[in-house]
Amino acid sequence: MMVSSKGRWIILAFVLNSLSSCKSLKIAVIGAGASGLAAAKNAIEQGHIVDVFEKTGQLGGIWYYTDDVGFDEYDVEIHTPMYKQLSATTPCEWMEFPGFDFQCETETHPDRESVWNYLHAYATYYNITNRLFLHRKVENVRLMSNGEWEVFVKNMPDNKQLEKHTYDHIFICSGVASNPRIPTFRDLNLFEGLKIHSRFYREPETFRGKNVLIIGSGASSLDITRQLKGVARKVVKSTHSTIAPTASPGSIIIFKGEVRRFGKNAVKFKDGSWEKISVVIFATGYLFDYPFLDSTNSGIVTNGVYVAPLYRQILNIENPTMAFVGIPTCVRQNPMYDLQARFALKFWTGVKQLPSIDHMMEDANRVANRNHPHKLGLYQAQYFDELDI
Known about the structure:
Layout: H1 6-20, E1 26-30, H2 34-45, E2 49-53, H3 112-125, E3 132-133, E4 136-143, E5 149-155, E6 161-167, E7 169-172, E8 194-197, E9 211-215, H4 219-228, E10 234-238, E11 246-247, E12 253-256, E13 259-262, E14 266-269, E15 274-276, E16 279-282, H5 295-298, E17 301-302, E18 307-308, E19 310-311, E20 315-316, E21 322-324, H6 333-348, H7 357-368, H8 380-387
Parallel strand pairs: 1-2, 1-7, 2-3, 7-21, 8-16, 9-10, 9-16, 10-12
Antiparallel strand pairs: 4-5, 5-6, 11-12, 13-14, 14-15, 17-18, 19-20
Helix pairs in contact: 2-6
């Protein structure tokens, strides 16, 4: 990754400080999921001019449920991985934005509808819905020579007309569930059954009586495995773990190690055994992907698992008038989104001065050297402290 010259960065820092001295900033928010709502709320609250662009017809991001998969009525890919019976795996108290509680009757682990209603209430209460443009697909974001950002947006209902807007600052809040990750497997092309990513899973009845292979070890793979028990004829769950092949007592769930290769209607595992299957579900996560950003112009590059160069996993080091909200995983997400948005706004408004480029690159390199760069986990408390400045 080549970092821009210090001279170029100093010019951008000057532009940033000049813009921040204005009474209000013009800010674009790309994405109306929970991270985009947090960014918009904090910017609106500070009196800035905010436009929120959402390519679908609803706010809520991954928490908006639809039976449909594939493409919507405007040929925009349906990106939500939400399935009908999903409930949150974390307590609702951990999912609350600061100062905005779930309704008192909400279950400890709220269902998808309760979470979506919470996000909609949040957007309504903080007047975000008045700044929200639905069915607006961001095609390109470009930095201009004067330091402003050009945003090209397709107005899908209006015959997909391309609109051009300019902004002082950009919040990238497009989420991490838009580009499914499907690992490479030997002879996968020979398999004649159904192959889907977990993003396209909606309800267990679709798989009644089938032999299903689920690949992955995350929350979605565990949840789908549980839902298919007693519905599918057989569920085979494959992970990287080196556990011995076992069958779940009293069930049709078989736990296996890694997949070695596929056949026409079967799969071979690392231990040499074969299992007949008719469906494979890849619960294998997602890749970081920002198709509307040009790496040369924006300064942002990604290999799918790491986004660089970012200060505190938020500010674009090369062009700090751009910020990302929502990249870190394994974290109390909504509280983090709020902290990240406020962190960026402090620098944009001049409340805090940007550290040196060397300091910011040191922070970015520290994250890059982890096995899973954007996975917080045990780093969560330290990260929250770093943002609460």
